[in-house]
Amino acid sequence: MAGPEVARPFVEAAGSSHPSLVDQGHALDALFGVTNVPQVVWIDEQGTIVRPPHRGWPMPVGEGALRLVEMIGGMEEREQYVQELRDWVANGGDSPYALTPDQVVERSRPTPPSVSEAAAHFELAQHFWRQEGLTERVITHFNHAHRLHPENVTYKRQAWSALAVERSGDDGDDEWTRFRQAPAEGEDWPFISDFNQDIDTIMGRS
After folding, report:
1. Radius of gyration, alpha carbons of the chain
2. How far apart are CA 79 and CA 57, in angstroms?
3. Cα(8)–Cα(69) distance, rounded to whole angstroms?
4. Any residues with CB less than 8 A from the CB of 157 and at least 6 apart, and which?
5. Beta strands, E only, 3-83
6. Which of 6, 31, 115, 145 is paired with 152 by a 20 to 30 Å CA distance?
7. Are 35 and 55 in contact (CB under 8 A)?
8. What is the pLDDT of residues 67-82, one digit of tens each?
9. HSE of 14 in the Cβ direction (CA atoms, 13 Å)?
């Protein structure tokens, strides 16, 4: 939500050789149905979607990412995805992983009213956040979005990250606090869910 200047140091530190676009308004959520990161949309040279939003797991880079993958699992899925992507790059429309337009439409889900309402609350949260910071009104709109569309993790992560950055301050000794997406022990957590709760739900621990 904070724009490209906030993201710039991380892009530069990564040393990317490709352009990095910052979706400040979360337009991909609305236009393509993206609900999490990393999700991927395959679009060919003619601008045709050949696979709608789906999990596009990269291989972990660094010890922290590797520990996270070991915790939640899915290394085989990541390896398989890389193979599928390479096959599509090499073979284009002849790849078995490239879908026909009819298959893309079949895999695309309709949007119920609750999802549209959640998007409206999320947009209001962003609008007011840029005017007044993380106020009670902003948190209320975030929570409405989270309740109405709980599968949309981008909505949740944006809210959690906004809180983490606000509470870490600019001179915090622990840089990791800027990336926390769950409450510390005894912390007043204003959102209806957090990363740890969601992981427990996914893993069947709650």
Report:
1. 18
2. 8
3. 26
4. 37, 181, 195
5. 39-43, 49-55
6. 6
7. no
8. 877 777 778 888 889 9
9. 11
